[in-house]
Amino acid sequence: MKYHTEYLWFNTKNHREYINITNEIDKILKTSNVKEGIVLVSAMHITAGVYINDAESGLIQDIDEWLECIAPFDINYNHHMTGETNGDSHLKSLMIGHEVIIPITDGKLDLGPWQQIYYAEFDGQRKKRLIVKVMGD
Amino acid sequence: MKYHTEYLWFNTKNHREYINITNEIDKILKTSNVKEGIVLVSAMHITAGVYINDAESGLIQDIDEWLECIAPFDINYNHHMTGETNGDSHLKSLMIGHEVIIPITDGKLDLGPWQQIYYAEFDGQRKKRLIVKVMGD
Amino acid sequence: MKYHTEYLWFNTKNHREYINITNEIDKILKTSNVKEGIVLVSAMHITAGVYINDAESGLIQDIDEWLECIAPFDINYNHHMTGETNGDSHLKSLMIGHEVIIPITDGKLDLGPWQQIYYAEFDGQRKKRLIVKVMGD
Asked: Over chain C (137 residues), what is each successive 10-residue block's mean pLDDT?
């Protein structure tokens, strides 16, 4: 059993941002030399997410508007009593999820034709980290 | 370490459909002969989901109505500028999630008494695929 | 490859409750003696959830109010035709998710500085179970 762990760092220009990390995960898989197994991709911050969906700019805008509608910025959240202003970012993270598991078959990410892996930043403009752990043979 | 991978195909009659796949996953587990480990069940399309909940028809109707309320069909999504009409299907997929990991103990899916595994189709009437990967000993 | 499985039981005082189980998961990891791998933490009931986020009481209240807003208690759900009254609990479980996978590196839960593991009860005051499965070397 092989284990290979890497950390990716992000520091986005915008408060919210959606970054396609499929190529980075693919490179890490190749480095690991694992042919059969899984890769866990998990945000290490509680105001960010990881999800799998389409690399289509209109849809990404839809996702952003939808999350903003369901968990709006600048509402008077209880969390803001601490001095924080990012209550919405926590809820957006819970909504979209913070981790995905991708199957590895024949040395490749076994994704469908349109599946792309995204890092979703909901409270950016600071350094944040994501863990990628490959497990298999 | 054993790895056993199968793909399930779906081509639903309806635009949206919820299909109990617990028995299929159980059969795949038996074929794999894995006694201890995990099984990953993951939709390979970005307008479908996989979730675990109750096999009760009223609740399934509630889930469908709830998802339709939160991510309605036929809204003027930005994604539709591409000619697609399934913006809601993507959001429903993100809402419900596209994958589950089920523990395997003593050669069985280690589920609670009411936990059933569902494939959720949000843009059906076409061929779609799901991956099942069993890992363990 | 080592496998270590434990079950945690809950019987909450309140109908809805959010319980930090990070220390319990950490203890189980130490018992397993796994240094590299993953731990699956998964609710075995369909009206409970498991998520990772902040241990801040205001935010926990925000999460509870947010879930109640999106999937309100005591609505006339179809599920209630069975005599049940917990339709909202099922939807809240689907919203927050019922499982997380935590990476293990150097014998530790490889979590970010603010990541805490929570059991979310949405229909409590009865005995419920959660599975913790550690896999690795």
From this structure: 97 98 98 98 98 98 98 95 97 98 98 98 97 98
All residues of chain A having their beta carbon less than 8 Å from the beta carbon of residue B80 are 58
Per the structure block, which two tokens stand in for C28? 């189980």
Predicted ipTM of the assembly: 0.97
CA distances to B1, B8, B112, C28, C109 from B108, rounded to whole Å, are: 17, 20, 12, 22, 27
Q: Contact at 8 Å (CB) between C112 and C12?
A: no
- Which of helix, strand or coil describes residue A16? coil
Q: Please report the domains of chain B, with CATH numbers, ordered by start residue.
A: 2-136 (2.60.120.460)
Please name which of C29, C32, C18 lies closest in space to residue C116, comparing C-alpha atoms.
Answer: C18
Please list every residue in chain A whose beta carbon sits closer than 8 Å to the beta carbon of residue C115.
44-46
C54, A78: Cβ pair inside 8 Å? no
Q: Which residues pair with B108 in a beta bridge?
A: B105
Query: Measured on CA atoms in the order C7, C13, C19, C24, is the torsion positive or negative?
Result: negative
Q: Per the CB < 8 Å rule, is C90 touching B59?
A: yes
* Contacts with C56 from chain A: Cβ below 8 Å: 79, 82
